TrEMBL record:
The lineage of its organism: Bacteria, Bacillati, Actinomycetota, Actinomycetes, Streptosporangiales. Its cofactor is [4Fe-4S] cluster; FMN. One of its GO terms (molecular function) is metal ion binding. Residues 492-541 are annotated as: Disordered. Residues 324-369 form the NADH-ubiquinone oxidoreductase 51kDa subunit iron-sulphur binding domain. Keywords: 4Fe-4S, Flavoprotein, FMN, Iron, Iron-sulfur, Metal-binding, Ubiquinone. InterPro entries: ComplexI_51kDa_subunit (IPR050837), Nuo51_FMN-bd (IPR011538), Nuo51_FMN-bd_sf (IPR037225), Nuop51_4Fe4S-bd (IPR019575), Nuop51_4Fe4S-bd_sf (IPR037207). GO terms for biological process: cellular respiration. Residues 508-519 have a biased composition (Basic and acidic residues). It comes from Nonomuraea solani. This is NADH:ubiquinone oxidoreductase, NADH-binding subunit (Chain F). Belongs to the complex I 51 kDa subunit family.
Length: 541
């Protein structure tokens, strides 16, 4: 049984990606073959021509031409080994289309990937998913169904299909992060841009695209360019999957032809637009209620309206929640999702989150938020800082009246109801620095090493903020380099008080009655003048 967290499917226009889902909870292989037939292998040149003819673009957000990806991998492989990689790692909390496809219609996705793999002569197809146990179980079952069909004399492709479950994070779906996770490394974006087409899974040329793209590719091969282009716009033919949530009475994944009015999609879901609609997810932008009335569902239509369609995420805000507070929740979440490997993410995003949270409380200023954005823009190791900056700047423009109300009255009078989707997950570990005041002489090195979490008073003595888990390594460095041996690092128990020493190798200060430097030594009793602990704005909402 499919749980409630996998959204229902709605449709406007013909059923293509969602064909058969009115009658089946999940399309197994026999049901899929009844609908779509057996997909015959195609020549690579023919497939590239098909994709060029309809200008097929990736549906993961970047909208890169799929034909160019195919050709780039073929050129890099030069007849040798290559890999086809399906990006099912949907780290965006407001998107559910990958989970829906993998859970309910996995064979259409696999058909497109296998079709590309056979044309390229690929070594294997790899499907990476972070969509939870249900999606992973569904795709594993689909692979087993194909294997069983071959054993019983079926004509399924014998290209190996490997399913890899990875840790779900906002940045897990970024191409470089996904490749690293599949290769057994930490799934964070690489510091330097690497093209998967030249070096991806196991260092081989890799065709990387998301689940909807491969499903669309299978349909293109099944229909041919002419029939495929019978729906949608002339420039962007076909249908598209949208995820509608937030203030919608009926959140759903919707299949609709391109060229449909956004207002019609919102009406289908009985959506309360309120102060605006977020388009493109948490690296997207806000449209006003007025702009949403005339915006068109297509890349070109959304660009004209002042937004980016991205991965097809639509989140109407509704009337009952504080718009600025909702935006601040997302900014805090995005700050906490940082990989922590570059200054703009590690330092800038928490500052940005604190600045916009200050506006919610009626303090701070819009100029302070804009300054924090300028520190971040175009300086990150990946797109995460720029995407977050884009979201925050869009919120400043969309909620100008609400911001003025907060600054004047301290609130707009509406609670923050948590309308914008956030992942439900266990809290990440947090740490704190503790100081032995009998040793500390105010060198200030800790503030130099951790400027975002350590403040110095007028006498040069430190006070500390809580430290997120991804900064634990840097905090340990500050402990090890303290000239007075006055610091220790402890993991909090979630309330900012108490906690345990944060693992070895850590130097613990001398305990009264204990042994100097002994691992696991009792925690020093609290004395006067303890450092101030304040909450960081960049924690997940």
């Amino acid at each position: 049984m499919i749980p409630a967290r996998v959204p229902r499917v709605l449709r406007m226009g013909p059923a293509r990606l969602t064909a058969g889902l009115d009658h089946c909870r999940r399309l197994d292989l026999p049901a899929h073959r009844t609908l779509h037939g057996v997909l015959e292998p195609r020549d690579l040149g023919e497939l590239i021509s098909y994709a060029n003819e309809v200008d097929m673009r990736g549906r993961g957000g970047a909208a890169f031409p799929f034909a160019r990806k195919l050709k780039a991998v073929a050129d890099a492989a030069k007849g040798g080994d290559c890999v086809v990689l399906i990006n099912g790692a949907e780290g965006e909390p407001a998107s559910s289309k990958d989970a829906m496809m993998l859970t309910r219609n996995p064979h259409l996705v696999l058909d497109g990937a296998v079709l590309a793999a056979e044309a390229l002569g690929a070594r294997e197809v790899v499907l990476a998913t972070a969509g939870g146990e249900v999606a992973e179980a569904s795709v594993n079952a689909a692979v087993a169904e194909r294997r069983a069909a071959n054993i019983s004399g079926g004509a399924e492709s014998r290209i190996p299909i490997r399913v890899v479950g990875i840790k779900e994070r906002f940045i897990s779906g970024e191409g470089g992060a996904l490749v690293k996770a599949v290769n057994g490394e930490e799934g964070i974006p690489p510091g330097r841009k690497k093209r998967a087409a030249t070096s991806g899974v196991d260092g081989l040329p890799t065709l990387l695209s998301n689940t909807e793209t491969y499903a669309q590719f299978a349909l293109l091969a099944e229909y041919g360019p002419e029939k495929y282009a019978q729906v949608g716009t002339s420039k962007e033919p076909g249908t598209i999957l949208l995820t509608v949530s937030g203030g919608a009475a009926h959140g759903a994944v919707i299949e609709t032809p391109t060229g449909t009015l956004l207002a019609d999609v919102l009406a289908l879901c009985e959506a309360d637009v309120g102060e605006g609609v977020l388009i493109g997810g948490y690296h997207g932008a806000w449209l006003s209620a007025e702009a949403a009335q005339t915006a068109v569902i297509s890349r070109e239509g959304m660009k004209l309206a002042g937004a980016t369609l991205g991965a097809g995420i639509i989140v109407p805000l509704g009337e009952t929640t504080c718009p600025l507070g909702e935006a601040a929740r997302v900014a805090s979440y995005l700050a906490a999702e940082s990989a922590g490997q570059c200054g703009p993410c590690r330092l800038g995003l928490p500052d940005m989150a604190r600045a916009i949270n200050a506006l919610v409380e009626g303090a701070g200023s819009v100029d302070a938020v804009r300054r924090s954005v300028r520190v971040v823009e175009r300086r990150g190791a990946c797109f995460h800082p720029d995407g977050t900056a884009k979201f925050v700047l869009s919120a400043l423009e969309a909620f100008e009246i609400e911001i003025a109300t907060h600054l004047e009255h301290g609130s707009c009078g509406r609670p923050v109801r948590g309308v914008l989707p956030m992942p439900e997950r266990e809290a990440e570990p947090e740490y704190r620095l503790e100081v032995d005041w009998s040793r500390c002489v105010g060198h200030g090195l800790c503030a130099h090493l951790l400027p975002e979490f350590v403040d110095l008073d007028d006498y040069g003595f430190p006070s500390f903020r809580k430290i997120p888990g991804f900064m634990a390594k840097d905090a340990r460095r500050a402990v090890d380099m303290c000239p007075a041996l006055a610091l220790r690092l402890a993991q909090t128990n979630g309330d900012g008080h108490g906690g345990k020493p944060a693992g070895s190798p850590l130097r613990l200060v001398k305990d009264r009655g204990g042994k100097k430097g002994e691992k696991g030594a009792p925690q020093l009793p609290r004395t006067g003048g303890l450092p101030r602990i304040s909450k960081v704005g960049g924690t997940a909402g």
